Amino acid sequence: MARSLFRRGPSYRRGQPLGLNMPFSGWLTLALAGGLAVFWLIRWVLS
Questions:
Q1: CB 18 within 8 A of CB 9
Q2: Cα-Cα-Cα-Cα dihedral of 18, 21, 24, 28, to 10°?
Q3: Distance between start and end Cα atoms, the chain
Q4: What radius of gyration, in Å, describes the C-alpha atoms of the chain?
Q5: Claim: this prediction has a pTM higher than 0.90
Q6: 3-state SS string over 1-47?
Q7: Tens of pLDDT along 2-35?
Q8: What band does 41 get if pLDDT is binned at 50, 70 and 90?
Q9: What is the pLDDT, as a whole number, of residue 26?
Q10: Can you tell me the distance from the alpha carbon of 30 to that of 47, in angstroms, rounded to the nearest whole number?
Q11: How far apart are CA 12 and CA 29, in angstroms?
Q12: What does the domain layout of the chain look like in residue ranges?
């Protein structure tokens, strides 16, 4: 997944940090996935 992001992103080739012109939906998806992962990790640790 990360590799395709690097290949597609013109921002990375220009030397800018990758996240600067990532669309808002991309950040939203990342936040949702991260939240879910943390949620399941905590549930797994506490069980």
A1: yes
A2: 0
A3: 30
A4: 14
A5: no
A6: CHHHHHHHCHHHHCCCCCCCCCCHHHHHHHHHHHHHHHHHHHHHHHC
A7: 555 455 555 545 555 555 566 778 888 989 999 9
A8: very high
A9: 81
A10: 26
A11: 20
A12: 2-46
Residue 15 has which token pair? 């030397």
Q: Would you say how long the chain is, in residues? A: 47
Query: Whole-angstrom Cα distance, residue 9 to residue 16?
Result: 10
Residues 33, 37, 38, 42, CA torsion sign: positive
Q: Distance (Å, rounded) from C-alpha 10 to C-alpha 28? A: 20
| Of 35, 31, 37, residue with least CA distance to 22 | 31
Q: Residue 2's pLDDT is what?
A: 52
